[in-house]
Design brief:
Length: about 210
């Protein structure tokens, strides 16, 4: 029988999750990167910088996803919802590690703004979890929908020779769509169009800044 986690246990878990999310190369994936075995294409300096900018955006998106799930897990009311948040966050660590590894291969780095976006996303996740599990799950579904659109756009925008980054984004898109479906099936509400528009606007702020910083 599993030992029930104490408050101290959960605080230690959260602190460990923060470190694994924000420290470069700290996250380790449970699955092999989709880029494994894919030949590295020839990229000139401009193409490499562009690919790195896109992968930096996707890495920060995964930082935000981690923070969102962790914040929701803290305030979720139903145990099965809390467990789902933690499980989804664990699966998203694969994406975080894949993007981090790909950035290193592109001779680039993660965003300096990650701590700021982590704090904001954690606060949003905790707040929605405190309001309602259905709202919290609905936020997951809406967020994953936005992420899926970004991933599709980035696959089109990547240099033609960057097949390794494209393989990573392709698998991430499959996983994100699955997470969105799970959130809706668990009782998440479908957000109205105006709310989704506001989320897209906030997303644009993140992508424009992180591409360079």
């Amino acid at each position: 029988m599993e030992r029930q986690q104490s408050r101290s246990d959960r605080l230690i878990y959260q602190f460990d999750a923060v470190l694994r999310t924000l420290m470069p190369h700290a996250a380790s994936s449970q699955r092999i990167s989709p880029a494994e075995g894919v030949a590295e294409g020839t990229l000139d300096d401009q193409e490499r910088r562009h690919a790195a900018g896109l992968m930096r955006i996707n890495h920060t998106g995964e930082v935000c996803a981690q923070a969102l799930y962790q914040g929701q897990g803290v305030t979720a009311k139903l145990p099965h919802v809390r467990h789902q948040m933690e499980q989804s966050a664990q699966e998203e660590i694969d994406h975080l590690a894949w993007c981090d590894e790909r950035l290193a291969q592109l001779q680039s780095r993660t965003s300096y703004l990650n701590p700021l976006f982590y704090a904001a996303s954690f606060g949003i996740g905790a707040a929605t979890g405190a309001v309602s599990d259905r709202i919290s799950l609905g936020l997951v579904a809406a967020t994953e929908e936005q992420v899926g659109k970004h991933l599709d756009s980035h696959q089109q925008s990547l240099p033609s020779g960057d097949k390794r980054s494209r393989a990573i984004l392709r698998q991430m898109a499959i996983d994100e769509a699955h997470h969105a479906q799970l959130a809706l099936e668990a009782g998440g509400v479908r957000f109205p169009a105006p709310v989704k528009w506001g989320m897209r606007l906030a997303s644009k702020v993140m992508t424009k800044s992180v591409y360079h910083i």
